[in-house]
Design goal:
The structure is a single chain. This protein has 4 helices and no strands. The protein is mainly alpha-helical. The radius of gyration is 21 Å and the shape is elongated. The model has no long low-confidence stretch (mean pLDDT 87).
């Protein structure tokens, strides 16, 4: 029997992966692929908006519009937008990595142990790369 191509699966409108299904079956992979692809598209659109905001703020700043308070506010806005852009860039890398794991068949499995992360955790955190226990242990070691 040929393996289903998760990219071509049309899911019912309200489909949500269930524990009763085989773990990371083609339908579940299609669900997460579509979810992550939509998030990536949204981020790409938002990143353009952030960069336009930075450019406009820099232009206003260079034109010398306003007093010192206005300049400080513009500077703060530029800094905040740049931080948002960096955060979005980091998130984009994580989404790309998750999409690559879907492609290579390792999505939903721990990068540490290879164990199933669990459908509940993947629904709550589609970018998860470790089981809850492994994540907690990692966080404890970090502190």
């Amino acid at each position: 029997m040929a393996k289903k191509d998760f990219k071509k699966i049309v899911l019912p409108p309200k489909y949500v992966p269930k524990k009763s299904e085989p773990y990371m079956c083609p339908e579940q992979l299609a669900y997460f692929y579509q979810l992550l692809t939509a998030q990536k598209t949204e981020l790409q659109h938002a990143s353009g908006d952030v960069l336009n905001s930075v450019r406009m703020a820099e232009k206003s700043s260079s034109e010398g519009v306003g007093d010192d308070s206005d300049s400080a506010t513009l500077e703060q806005e530029i800094t905040m937008n740049l931080r948002m852009s960096q955060r979005d860039s980091n998130l984009m890398r994580k989404i790309d990595a998750a999409l690559a794991r879907i492609e290579d068949g390792t999505y939903g499995y721990s990068v540490v142990s290879g164990d199933e992360i669990g459908i509940g955790r993947m629904l709550a955190r589609p970018l998860a790369t470790m089981t809850i226990e492994e994540q907690e242990e990692y966080e404890q070691r970090k502190n």
